[in-house]
């Protein structure tokens, strides 16, 4: 199951969907999303932006960091139905993107966060792509997927985002899907504990988090919209 399969599963629930993607890179996911209006944000696009704009007249491209986009370019009354966060692979930047994103999400909108469940030690502890490549070579790891410490976002949302329900896609590499729906309770953790949680702890505690097939996640979200 691809990234765009997950995103489109929710985009397609909206008529004339408005879509924001943070961290676009080569545009593989962005250009496969079926939204009516799309906004791409990345510090350095890995494709010909002029040609992409011609091919996608209903898309807007901002070749700037996401912090600059939220500070200078998004309109105060602008709203998106689906927001996909796949930017810098650090918990700090991903958390900042999430906090900014919720201000521009419609009430029944969906946020998808990529790379929350690293498949191996190197993918989950490396703080940069270069460090990951070094660890991968020394450890003989075949997978080229670097995710950094974005797994900490699971702990943050589970602990501090009580107004949002969430699931983690079990059908692929692990994407978190969030929508507004207050949970009855949250796990009691210190903020320092969340910020410092080691990857080994995540691996041991992974089973306590709500992983589910995309079909079940879609049904859970639909149930919220019907209420």
UniProtKB/TrEMBL annotation:
Single GO term (MF): methyltransferase activity
Pfam family, one: Methyltransf_24
Gene Ontology BP terms: methylation
Record key words, sorted: Methyltransferase, Transferase
Protein name: Class I SAM-dependent methyltransferase
Source organism superkingdom: Bacteria
Gene3D superfamilies: Vaccinia Virus protein VP39 (3.40.50.150)
Record-linked InterPro entries: SAM-dependent_MTases_sf
The keyword Methyltransferase is annotated on this UniProt entry: yes
